[in-house]
């Protein structure tokens, strides 16, 4: 029997315990009854909106002194707004061992991305019995899954102690000690994967992300070392792990065992047998695309990748690779069709897609080392549809411009994504025409002389990436030639390579990425209903509101640029010789003409806005780099020079502020004199203000 001293000690311990808060759903109910938003509550408690969401979802709990203030507020609301006919609620178990129901997740705010506790979810109290090897996971996660076949979401981050952190705060118990065991567990027991994005497509294979500790535990080196870029390194074929994979009758893709390794067996019927691995310590997550993610805790990494997988696609490699994979996932090359002769269902072409076979480009659309060019001896020139990199001549600056104290950079939100909307591209092979009549509705490449067109030297030429005037006939994509016609000039093509079958191939890709971008910005507090001043204030601090979601936003932007760039991936490696094929040419998505169409349209859109700004304000830019334009300004904000109507609304046709792709945001502010000094040195102030943003390279 316990002694009196022991009993009193136990009672004292209960008295000293932190007070229990009401259940998460009740916290949300009380806040909504008081008419207070999550953002306003976060401001009052000196915390983030995401923390409030986590408290109301049961994914984390506040700590003192914030806990005491929060409880006092909830008690006050409870007295004012009692639950009608509701019995007193029982205390909930700690958030680490339970997950919210679907009703608890809903709040007055916009739907939120998957979240995890601020300190990371705790491990289950006990491991499952070795005989069953079933995952120990939060029950509520099964209700949140969109597809019952994949109750635990699209991916998990595996740590060295066997904890596999999934989306929504779940923790699975993975007993695997080798890579083959991990693959078997993932396919048979983990419940990971994602449903196809198109009715004719394929389900996304599960992704397992390995921390450094997990990689070492599974027999992999913590780091890959070598003279090559780390993303190009692979395990040697005689490495024990590679031998284990082969001995277990699994296969690696031709890319081998690198930072993004795919392990598979031939599909059995409709069931795919494939697992994607990503090794964090091998630089699987590029810092430029996923800033800070590799250094996060496993649960937070799962949250970041889970949001991306839910809104974009389960990562299959770099963001460039994922961007390209998303195109195919949304426009599968084949679909089931009935064979009229036999009555059987067979694989047939899916209308609007790029098909299953690679297609040779027209010679001017190819790169100089392409077999089409080398084998034909082509000397007729090439398309040069690239993003702007232009700086205005110092000689054209006026005294009025030189005395303005600021240069303000405007960055268009995902300008290349906006250019992909309703973009008609070719779906068939190019046909060659001599002296054709120009038709702006036909996608292709046109040899035209635009050198006679004289435009204001204070603006970049819309026909060249460096903004200089053309010097003679050159190859242009349809949008560039159509813009010359829009400006009032006659165009007479000398020859052309055109495509008869056309379609808006990128439309679903644009729609999904636009929604992902806008929704993620909204979660960071940058919403469509903000006025311009509030929008700029929100953009200034949005990355600090939630670094995890800020990383998702960065990855979405990188997916756009990398995906477009990968349409013209060039050969890699020192051993390559001109005229040889390279792996990217075997893809139906090696389409430099589509890349040229996106960039051409984006550059034309930029010039149209520059032109309209001159008409509305008389202002000329100092420089343009890719999707960033720099203007002289009397103040340090774009509000000091952007055109507004008497009603206070932005003038249509010019640059407008807002979160939607194609609209502007303030990228940076520097002094006008510094910008002029850079120009005198032959440097581009836009590049320095913007920080050297990548210009649609060919991906990774």
Written overview of the protein:
- The chain has 22 helices and 20 strands.
- The protein has a 7-stranded mixed β-sheet with strand order 3-2-1-4-7-6-5.
- Strand 5 (251-252) and strand 6 form a beta hairpin.
- The radius of gyration is 29 Å and the shape is globular.
Tell me the layout of helices and strands.
Layout: H1 4-16, H2 24-33, H3 38-44, H4 49-57, H5 66-80, H6 102-105, H7 140-144, E1 155-158, E2 163-166, E3 171-173, H8 179-188, E4 207-210, H9 212-217, H10 240-247, E5 251-252, E6 260-268, E7 271-279, H11 298-311, H12 319-330, E8 334-338, E9 345-349, H13 371-376, E10 389-391, H14 399-402, E11 406-412, H15 415-420, E12 425-426, E13 431-434, E14 444-449, E15 473-477, H16 478-486, E16 495-498, E17 502-503, H17 507-523, H18 532-545, H19 547-565, H20 592-617, E18 623-625, E19 628-633, E20 664-671, H21 672-680, H22 685-690
Parallel strand pairs: 1-4, 4-7
Antiparallel strand pairs: 1-2, 2-3, 5-6, 6-7, 8-9, 10-18, 11-19, 11-20, 12-17, 13-16, 14-15, 14-16, 18-19
Helix pairs in contact: 3-4, 11-19, 12-19, 16-20, 17-19, 18-19
Helix run count? 22
Mean pLDDT: 84
The helicity comes to 25-40%
Uncertain regions spanning at least 5 consecutive residues = 86-145, 668-676, 683-700
Number of strands: 20
Oligomer state of the chains in this structure: single chain
The Cα radius of gyration reads: 29 Å
> Which range does the strand content fall in?
5-15%
Class by SSE composition: alpha+beta
